[in-house]
Amino acid sequence: MAIYGDHLGASDDAYRAARALAHATIRLDHPEDPFDVQRQRPEYPEDTYSVIGNVLAVLRCLHQVVQQVDACQHRAAARATGRDLTAAAHGHLRDAVFALDRAHAHLDLALGVTSAITWQPAPTPQQPAAAVRADADVAPAASSGVTRGGASGLGL
């Protein structure tokens, strides 16, 4: 459970969560699925919508964190021995905020485009991928039965 007054613990937790997400997205498969003959599970590209939505929420939080760290340094600048260093840090933190804004804008566009994608079902271990693609050419996308996941973390 988050302790909102512990900025050092929260930043450590955020790092661990980001690292876990980086590892978990190497392949977007589900651990409960059986392996195929090549010892791989099917991937679920429909899960990318939720992942992108949650990363957008994280970026909004990071934007706020960077602004707040900058504000703290600005408030305490009189206590710094190197005023030119605090000014340089402020410039770099402001640049980071702008970079987070750009990253957010691009991910938001990607989320919008991703929401329009209809994914065909993954092949079963007994069914080759070519057979699923052949079925997809015949069946309309709306009847595939595969739905996109919702972005579950957007309302922080």
- Give the total of beta strands: 0
Number of domains: 2
Distance between the termini: 15 Å
Q: What is the chain-wise order of helices and strands? A: HHHH
* Helix content class: 55-70%
Percent strand equals: under 5%
Silhouette: elongated
Low-confidence blocks of residues? 137-156
Biggest beta sheet attributes:
none
Mean pLDDT: 82
The secondary structure category is mainly alpha
Total count of helical runs of at least 4 residues:
4
For the CA atoms, what is the radius of gyration? 22 Å
Describe the model.
- The chain has 4 helices and no strands.
- It is mainly alpha-helical and 156 residues long.
- The chain is elongated.
- The two termini are 15 Å apart.
SSE blueprint and pairings:
Elements: H1 7-24, H2 48-75, H3 83-114, H4 129-138
Helix pairs in contact: 2-3
Describe what is shown at a glance:
The protein has 156 residues and is mainly α. The chain has four helices and no strands.
What keyword list fits this structure?
2 domains; disordered C terminus; single chain; mainly alpha; 156 residues; elongated; 4 helices; 56% helix
